[in-house]
Amino acid sequence: MKEIISVAVVGAGAIGASIAVRLKDAGKQVIISANGERKARYLKQGFVVNGQQYFLPVKDQQEAAPADLIIVAVKNYSLEEAIEEMRPYINTNTIILSLLNGIDAVPRLRKEFGEDRVPYAMILGIDALREENRVQYLAKGKIFCGFEKEKAQKNAPKLALLEEFFRTSDIAFVVPEDIVKEIWFKFMINVGLNQWSALIRSPYRLFQDSLHGQELLRQTMMEVIALSSHFDVNLNETDIDRGIAVLQTLAPEGKTSMLQDVEARRQTEVDAFAGAMIRLAKAIGLNVPINAILYEAIRAIEDSYRAE
């Protein structure tokens, strides 16, 4: 493959829709993948991003054709459904870019589709808010992408294709020295910020301004740091300061995806955050008491949807 031309976006939430319309604005050949009711809704309503109406091509599995790049932006609990949905878009050279939160999605996608077509990736620093078909953001964020050091040389041509594609799309794209550490860095932020924001039900402003709010984040992130050392990632306390610095760049009234889910009474990604912490910590005999409490508290919030 000499260049990336065709793109399929699987998952048109706040992240997926915002990326898709930026690709469209850059003149890229992009479609939204959706089936059934979602397809009909996207075709009828389109997407309103930062106040501008967009109607993008929407294809279901029967209409799908192989794509050069698949961008996956679903919630973690929808990954298995997304795997089935994306199969018709895959050919020999297709690259799969996962923008899912957490640390489990890339290993799962690699198991299904092969290691060399799925780099590690994440988007960091975007403050997109979604309500129905409307998405609003101030901070655009950056995509971080790469392969593990032992796979980097072999897959350098794929990263070069991705760098050029996003450069010509006006989407910031960074290849860090250690992508696995960066994935865990975002995981650390999500485990702290997303979960406490959902539990306290506060936007970014509280955690930007309140020392007490920041201490909640720090104590929770310390559990991620302790866990990371058992997986040769070795986050440290300076990464907490780096995470707080990222937080300060976001719109004060912006909200984490988990807070948005709670306010909309949707299922959350607590399994991908506290749930993953508990599962991995148990396997190595490590205690993560803050995440154990957060898991039960957020599960209780979800239970409240059904109780009312």
Report on the architecture of this protein.
- The protein is built from 13 helices and twelve strands.
- With 308 residues, the protein is of the alpha/beta class.
- The protein has two domains: 6-174, Rossmann fold (3-Layer(aba) Sandwich); 179-307, N-(1-d-carboxylethyl)-l-norvaline Dehydrogenase, domain 2.
- The strands form three sheets. A five-stranded parallel β-sheet has the order 5-2-1-6-7, sandwiched between helices. A four-stranded mixed β-sheet has the order 4-3-10-9, with helices on one face. A three-stranded mixed β-sheet has the order 8-11-12.
- The N and C termini lie far apart (53 Å).
- The model has no long low-confidence stretch (mean pLDDT 96).
CATH architectural group of the largest domain: 3-Layer(aba) Sandwich
Q: Main sheet, how many strands, which sense, barrel?
A: 5 strands, parallel
Distance between the termini: 53 Å
With strands numbered from the N-terminus, the spatial order across the biggest sheet is 5-2-1-6-7
What's the CATH H-level homologous superfamily of the largest domain? NAD(P)-binding Rossmann-like Domain
Structural class: alpha/beta
CATH topology of the largest domain: Rossmann fold
CATH structural class of the largest domain: Alpha Beta
Helix fraction bin:
40-55%
Number of helices: 13
Please give the domain count: 2
- What is the element string, with H for helices and E for strands? EHEHEEEEHEHEEEEHHEHHHHHHH
Number of strands: 12
